[in-house]
Amino acid sequence: MKIAMIGTGYVGLVSGVCFSEFGHEVTCADKDANKIARLHAGEVPIYEPGLAAMMARNVAAGRLHFTTDLTSAVAGADAVFIAVGTPTRRGDGHADLTHVMAAAREIAKALTGHAVVVTKSTVPVGTNRKVAGVIRETNPLAEFDIASNPEFLREGAAIEDFMKPDRVVVGVESDRAKTVMGEVYRPLYLRDFPIVYTGLETAEMIKYAANAFLATKISFINEIAALCERVGADVKDVAKGIGLDGRIGSKFLHAGPGYGGSCFPKDTSALARIGQEHGVPQRITETVITVNDMTKRRMIEKVVDVCCGSVNGKSIAVLGVTFKPETDDMRDAPSLTIIPALVGAGASVRVVDPQGQKEGAALLPGVTWLDDPYVAAEGADCLLILTEWNEFRALDLARLARAMATPRMADLRNVYDAARAQEAGFVAYESVGRPAMALGGSA
Question: In terms of domains, do 241 and 174 share one?
């Protein structure tokens, strides 16, 4: 199959590379000439484990190409995927479809024969029909079918998710489109991974419903965590106790500073907006958004509390700023709420993150970037864990405590525990959803 991938952002690049790994001939097109030049040079513009090696292998095999010329990419393609950004639109919370519709117009002009035009970007219900309308309006003679193929890729595990998916969702309305999409995903079908065929609107809704449900689990356990702190319960044990119930499951029941990233914030916001527009308010999703915002603010209070009520003039060493480990993505990361608040309250902040500085340098002005947690801890009044990178899971806490001016820890990912912190010499330890423990000592 010949595939054109329009957009080389996270979804487009990962999908294009993985399709070429299936054996398809893939051309990834993007207007950003600098990004295409970097890809031609073998440089991956995003951090995703394993992606660079897979990309190089398929470029060398002649199956994967990059271009700024959308027309040449689309010409003769069996399937043309739209994988451009759909950020939250300012002012109303809806998904901004400007890039999707612009891509549809350009694709319409470039079609040379029949193709299935596939929306892989996350779009509101009804968007695929609008894409079809734009193509027909732009090129009344175009031969095409429309398909919806939402992505379910976790940053940091995207290749595994693509090659071994829980399911592939394909929204189609014609046998011809179903046949083409079946060939695109034939390698997965042959290995018995489930492919769910639906209508267009159903496929679009599945994506939003899935992300809203997962975001709900996160906000739910964070609310339970706040209650656990008040009543003396341990949220980690609560999560384990309910997660063993097969009707609930253990995933996404980890208390922390709130969700972020490229999907949950914008998709919950868009779903809430869709509900409002259709007169069916999504009250649970709206509350999830509110709880997530409150959770981030509550984390600021935790840091202030562990610093004896004020961070003014205090030095804080922050470990991790990306919204999750194994990614360089800073979009809507809790750190973007928490760190500016600390800086604004007079704290001096030093940051260590294996991949966060590339984006974080512009997003977090006024902080100092370092490469070593032990260097960051020297003379610090508080150690703040915001992202649970593997590099931060087995630190020498005694060494950190000795280096600090006042050994206090705000562990917002529950990586450690109070007993271990006390044994290492910390005089204060704050976590999420676990009983508060006065460690003693002096500060």
Answer: no
The reply to whether 284 and 137 lie within a common domain is no
Q: Mark whether 28 and 114 lie in a shared domain.
A: yes
57 with 114, same domain? yes
Number of domains present in the structure of the chain: 2
Angle, CA 393 vertex, CA 388 and CA 394 arms, to 5°: 165
State the DSSP code for 95: B
Q: Which of 18, 28, 228, 263 is catalytic?
A: 263
Tell me the residue type at 276.
Q
- What does the block give as tokens for 421? 């912190």
Helix (H, G, I), strand (E, B) or coil at 417: coil
What tens digit of pLDDT does each residue of 125-134 get? 999 999 999 9
Domain end residue (candidates: 173, 198, 223): 198
Residue 104 near residue 134, CB atoms below 8 Å: yes
CA–CA distance from 289 to each of 260, 263, 286, 337 (Å)?
11, 13, 5, 15
Residue 263 appears among annotated catalytic residues:
yes
Mean pLDDT, all residues of the chain: 95
Q: Which of 170, 198, 226 finishes a domain?
A: 198
Are 88 and 237 within one domain? no
Closest CA to 113 of 77, 89, 81, 80: 77
Tokens of 412: 């917002």
CATH number of the domain encompassing residue 72: 3.40.50.720
What are the pLDDT digits (tens) for 367-377?
A: 999 999 999 99
Range of the domain at 323: 199-443
Distances (CA, A) of 56 to 2, 53, 147: 19, 5, 29
Buried b (16+ CB within 10 A) or exposed e, 58-78: bbeeebbbbbeebeebbbebb
Give residue 437's pLDDT: 65
